[in-house]
Amino acid sequence: MTDSVKDKVIAIIAEQAVLEPGDVTPEATLSDLGIDSLGLVESIFAIEEAFDIQVPFNANEPDQSEFDISSVAAIIAAVEGLVAAQKGA
């Protein structure tokens, strides 16, 4: 399950960044990839739709969010946690 979550998240981020998935590294930040605040919001919506989850993210206050967007790896880990929590609910 973990690989498919990772692959889907990377594919979503790559699409927003107009990059190939292979160009998106776990240590990259969204700004490293050229994703702006609109791209971030679109990525969040795409992640919510792809995994049927609710992401605790406030676009008006991204620094106050419980959803860690500091790097691609952090986003993957956060999505994995939300998917696991949803399956356990």
Automatic annotation (TrEMBL):
Cellular component terms (Gene Ontology): cytosol; membrane
Any GO molecular function: acyl binding
InterPro entries per the UniProt record, alphabetical: ACP (IPR003231), ACP-like_sf (IPR036736), PP-bd_ACP (IPR009081), Ppantetheine_attach_site (IPR006162)
Sorted UniProt keywords: Fatty acid biosynthesis, Fatty acid metabolism, Lipid biosynthesis, Lipid metabolism, Phosphopantetheine, Phosphoprotein
GO biological process: one example: lipid A biosynthetic process
Domain Carrier, first and last residues per copy: 1-83
Pathway info: Glycolipid biosynthesis; KDO(2)-lipid A biosynthesis
Alphabetized PANTHER family for the sequence: ACYL CARRIER PROTEIN, CARRIER DOMAIN-CONTAINING PROTEIN
Protein name: Acyl carrier protein AcpXL
